């Protein structure tokens, strides 16, 4: 039997409403990517080392104790010491200063050649993957022709035809890596162009330019970013190989490959002459490769979900 309220009694206050759950703020994708990359110690250390190498290349003249061609005949082939941490060469030049100054030359050739390959290769891959049909056939067959030649031999042939020098080395290395970027971009675009959001935008009348710039390219970018890091490693190696063969920067300009070539004749009596430029190449290439591996894990959707869920 229901009990009626007593006349004049104050009704009981209703229970307090539970607060609605607040959604966590959405982090920008680039910040999330950097956070996941920082949790990978190998990639994080590689990125820090590369930043230091780039800073050394930018401020090379400030950091180098001596000029690139300052000679002291009384200090020929001196071993490493406090005054000359990397020793001296056959002309009495400070190897430490030349390694620092050579970083600018080697990295400049590597970055500019990869930038050339990135722009041209990405454009070719976008057109081939987005339009397909005869455009895809023609462009990809041209890329297959370039792929038929070994990379270093093709670069040597281009430099041999156009002549030695940094500009021609940049062009040669860039042409070698254009097909790689074209193939990576095309493969990524083929998977993106049939997505629902792309077809929906096309159905409402979006132009090809808008589809490519707003939907296709941003979502096809992760593999291209990873390939850029990997290609930078091989570009530094290719520049060192061309310089070693006398087809890159010319003497007396310092370059890691040139220093390696000059030091090979003194490897028994002055091991430091070739070892330190070689170590600079090894560390730079290794860091680019390790950073590329970390970017591949972070930008892959499956690996990204696992890393975010495991708290790595």
TrEMBL record:
Transmembrane segments: 37-59, 109-130, 142-161, 167-184, 224-250, 270-292
Membrane topology category: Multi-pass membrane protein
Bias-annotated ranges (Low complexity): 1-11
Region entry Disordered, spans: 1-25
Keywords in alphabetical order: Cell membrane, Membrane, Transmembrane, Transmembrane helix, Transport
A Pfam family hit: OppC_N
ABC transmembrane type-1 domain ranges (all copies): 103-292
Subcellular location: Cell membrane
Gene Ontology biological-process entries: transmembrane transport
GO cellular component: plasma membrane
Similarity remark: Belongs to the binding-protein-dependent transport system permease family.
Protein name: Peptide/nickel transport system permease protein
């Amino acid at each position: 039997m229901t009990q009626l309220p007593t006349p004049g009694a104050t009704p009981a206050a209703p229970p307090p409403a539970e607060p609605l759950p607040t959604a966590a703020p959405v982090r920008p994708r680039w910040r999330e990517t950097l956070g996941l990359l920082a949790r990978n110690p190998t990639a994080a250390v590689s990125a820090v080392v590369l930043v230091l190498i780039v800073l050394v290349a930018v401020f090379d003249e400030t950091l180098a104790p001596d000029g690139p061609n300052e000679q002291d005949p009384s200090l020929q082939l001196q071993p490493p010491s406090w005054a000359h941490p990397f020793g001296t060469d056959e002309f009495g030049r400070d190897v430490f200063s030349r390694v620092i100054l050579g970083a600018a030359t080697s990295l400049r050739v590597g970055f500019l050649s990869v930038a050339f390959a990135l722009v041209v290769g990405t454009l070719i891959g976008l057109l081939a993957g987005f339009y397909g049909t005869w455009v895809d056939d023609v462009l990809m067959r041209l890329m297959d022709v370039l792929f038929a030649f070994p990379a270093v031999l093709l670069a040597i042939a281009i430099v041999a035809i156009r002549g030695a020098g940094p500009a021609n080395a940049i062009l040669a290395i860039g042409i070698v890596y254009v097909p790689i970027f074209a193939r990576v971009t095309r493969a990524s675009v083929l998977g993106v162009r049939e997505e629902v959001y792309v077809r929906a935008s096309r159905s409402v009348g979006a132009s090809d330019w808008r589809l490519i710039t707003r939907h296709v390219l941003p979502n096809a970018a992760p593999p291209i970013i990873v390939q850029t890091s990997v290609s930078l490693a091989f570009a530094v190696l290719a520049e060192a190989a061309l310089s070693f063969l006398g087809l890159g920067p010319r003497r007396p300009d310092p370059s890691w490959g040139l220093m390696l070539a000059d030091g090979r004749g003194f490897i028994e009596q002055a091991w430091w002459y070739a070892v330190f430029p070689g170590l600079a190449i090894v560390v730079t290439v290794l860091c680019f490769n390790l950073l590329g591996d970390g970017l591949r894990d972070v930008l892959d959707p499956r690996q990204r979900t696992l890393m975010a869920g495991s708290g790595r």
